Each structure stands twice: as C-alpha cells, then as structure tokens.
Amino acid sequence: MRDVIIIGAGPAGLQAALTLGRMHRSALVIDSGEYRNGPVQHMHNVVANDGTPPAEFRATARAQLAEYATITLRDGAVTSVAAADGDFAVTLDDGAVERAPRVLLATGMADDLPAVPGLAELWGVHAFNCPFCDGHEFAGRRVGVLGGGRAEHLLRLLGPITASLVVFDGGELDGAARAALEDRGATVHSAPVASVAAHGGGVRVHAGGPVDVAGIFVTNGATRQRAPFAEQLGLRMLPTGAVEVDDFGRTSLPGVWAAGDLAHRASLPGIMAAVTLAAAAGQLAAVGIVQELAMG
Questions:
Q1: What is the pLDDT of residue 54?
Q2: How far apart are CA 175 and CA 57, in angstroms?
Q3: What's phi and psi for 218, nearest 5 deg?
Q4: Do residues 146 and 217 lie in contact, with contact meaning Cβ atoms separated by under 8 Å?
Q5: What are the tens digits of pLDDT across the range 200-248?
Q6: CA-CA distance, 110 to 226, in Å (whole number)?
Q7: Per the count of CB atoms within 10 A, which of 42, 56, 129, 228 is most buried?
Q8: Considering the domain 4-110+222-295 in this protein, what is its CATH number?
Q9: How far apart are alpha carbons 194 and 206 in whole angstroms?
Q10: Phi-psi region for residue 274, left (φ > 0), alpha (ψ -120 to 50) or beta?
C-alpha cells in the first residue's frame, strides 16, 4: 500500500509527488487530463518558466518524476473518494479501486464563465481573469473588462500597464459607480454584451455596437470545485468555495490533505490562483505528510 494517493496532476500534485519522491515516500498520482489552465497557451509570472506552455511544463515534470522509483503516475478520472476501514478508497471511472491511508486532493477549481456567446472560445487565448498572469501582454493597448462588480479593483491593477480600459458592465453599475470608473479614465458601456469574437489579433465585443479591444478580463464569472471529493468527504469549506486547510494543507478530516487553488487558509482573503503558489502548497502538503510518516 502506498503512503498517499494524489488526485490531480497540475502544479500542486506534481510538486507534492516530487517532494515525496525525493524523501523516498510512495505515492500514486492520478491524472484526469483536465486542468484549469488547460486552454492557456503560455504560463506567465512563473520564475524560470515565464512563457512556457502549460502542457510542456507538465510533460517535463512527469518525465522528471519517472526518475523516482516510489512515484507512480496513472492516467484516469477518479469518480469517488471515501473513508474505508481506516484507509481511503479511491474509485476510478474504469471501476478500479486504489487504497491508501492518506489522500491529497489537488484537483483545482473550474471556471464558470458568463453566458456570453463566443467567450468560451476566447478563454485562455484572448480572455482571462488574472492580471498578474496575463496583464503584461497587453502593455500599452486598449483592454476590455467584462462585468462591473470588480471593475474598479481591476482598473487599479491594470492602470499602470494598459493604455486604456473599456468596462462592459451590462447595466450592473449605478450612476455613481460608473462615474467613479470614468473619473479614473475608463470608458463604460452599459449595453448588454451580445457576443465576443476574435478579430484582428484582438477581440470584438458587441455591446450596443462593435467595440474592438486587445483582450478582455472577466470579472463576473464564478469558480467552483472541479471535483466532488471535498463534498463526498465532508470537508470543512470556506465562504470562497475552497477547502479550509492549515499551513501544511491538512483538511478537517485526518488523513486528507488539499493543495492548490481548491484550498486555502482561513487567514487569506480568497483563492490564490497561480502556478507558483499551487506548487508551493503542494510542497508544503508533502512536507506535512512526510513529517507525519516520520513521527508515526
């Protein structure tokens, strides 16, 4: 029996596996092939990997993990996780059941985009939600913001980068909020966004007429747990929709850890979605597991 089963093979799961492998602890990593940054062409704000395609990053990590005899990678989708006789039973979609005394959830979050025709096709290519990851690429250009709720915050972050910002609030904002954005130099379109599409290397937004921007940042989407395992295990959740963990990724259920953007500490204001932060969380969770094994 392995020391731990890691569900998810993004940055958090892969880093956790590397740390466990280097400490000669055994782990099975189950990779569903679904990743939050799957549509993204290039990662950014990742030291030594700025501009690296996410698929290349994952392939390199998997190749390096192959050098560690105690780490096994398996492609497949997990359907359920349950406590069973002092261990955890992890069931895959092919009916196989893997067991271990510990589970590390690294399945991440999923983005639910606003119901705007064409937006899904642009996601990760011309449409984004993180200015730290994708803002620099629009330096000196006109950028759109879809949704009014967090538009002012995004305007403050992107202000030093972009030439101008166009906020498509869809009528969400009142007059005072629109005036505040305009005072900061933004143009506000309150007509509903009918559709978006790639156009001339950028994006054409149809909102009471065509408006061309270099790209768009989405503020009115939502995130959810990509997988149902936190609910199946009855883990304590935070108002953000993330699993509550301690500093080493322990959840409210002994034997279960969580790492990456599906989890965070209660002291943080929200979900921190970034490759380096996910990898760091995976390493901390692995350290916590190794410490528990060492003290056992």
A1: 96
A2: 46
A3: -100, 125
A4: yes
A5: 999 999 999 999 999 999 998 899 999 999 999 999 999 999 999 999 9
A6: 5
A7: 129
A8: 3.50.50.60
A9: 5
A10: beta
Nearest partner of 211 among 161, 168, 169, judged by Cα: 168
pTM above 0.90, yes or no: yes
For the residues of 169-197, what is the DSSP string, one character each? -TT-S-HHHHHHHHHTT-EEE-S---EEE
DSSP string, 120-151: HHHBTTTEES-HHHHSGGGTTSEEEEE-STTH
pLDDT at 34 over 90: yes
* pLDDT for res 255: 98
Distance between CA 203 and CA 125 in Å, rounded? 10
- Domain 114-218 belongs to what topology? FAD/NAD(P)-binding domain (3.50.50)
For 278, list phi and psi in degrees, rounded to 5: -65, -45
Q: What is the mean pLDDT of the chain?
A: 96
Q: Which residue ranges make up each domain of the chain? A: 4-110+222-295, 114-218
Residue 197 has pLDDT above 90, yes or no: yes
List the structure tokens of 245: 């963990």
In whole angstroms, give the CA distance from residue 261 to residue 80.
Answer: 20
Cα gap 157→135, rounded to integer Å: 9
Q: At what angle do helices 54-65 and 11-22 cross, to 10 degrees?
A: 20
Q: What does the pLDDT average to over 72-93?
A: 96
Query: Is 114-218 in the same CATH topology as 4-110+222-295?
Result: yes
